[in-house]
Amino acid sequence: MSRRRVLVVDDDPDVLETVAWAVDHGGYDVVSIDRFDRAKQFIRTTPPDALVTDVRLGAFNGLLIAYVGVPPFVVTLGTLSIARSLAMVLSDNRMVYE
Questions:
Q1: Which of 5, 15, 34, 83 could join 26 via S-S bond, C-beta 3.0 to 4.6 A?
Q2: Could you say which DSSP state residue 72 is in?
Q3: Do the Cβ atoms of 82 and 23 come closer than 8 Å?
């Protein structure tokens, strides 16, 4: 069985690395992207199973990435309980805000 792919988007390299590590250790394949425009392009060509995004991505609102056509997503203002939140959205198709 293949692992679900999760897109992690954050413009802070330390947060991006930390969240990607947590998602990977939660049992998911991870794609890490540091810019809003690159995330939109990726989603259009290779839709992930879930999205973890920071709200503030430079001049952009990370929530706008979800309008490109992403399934369940987690919005973070930090790195709180990422693995738990992913488990919730991937099982119930709900949004989780932390």
A1: 83
A2: S
A3: yes
User: CB 41: neighbour CB atoms within 10 A?
Assistant: 13
Strands (E), 1-98: 5-9, 29-33, 50-54, 56-57, 60-61, 73-76, 96-97
Identity (one letter) of the amino acid at 47?
Answer: P
Tell me the C-alpha distance between 95 and 98, whole Å: 10
Q: How many other C-beta atoms are found inside a 10 Å radius of the C-beta of residue 17?
A: 13
Q: List, for residues 3-41, the tens digit of each pLDDT value.
A: 889 999 999 898 889 889 888 888 899 999 999 999 989
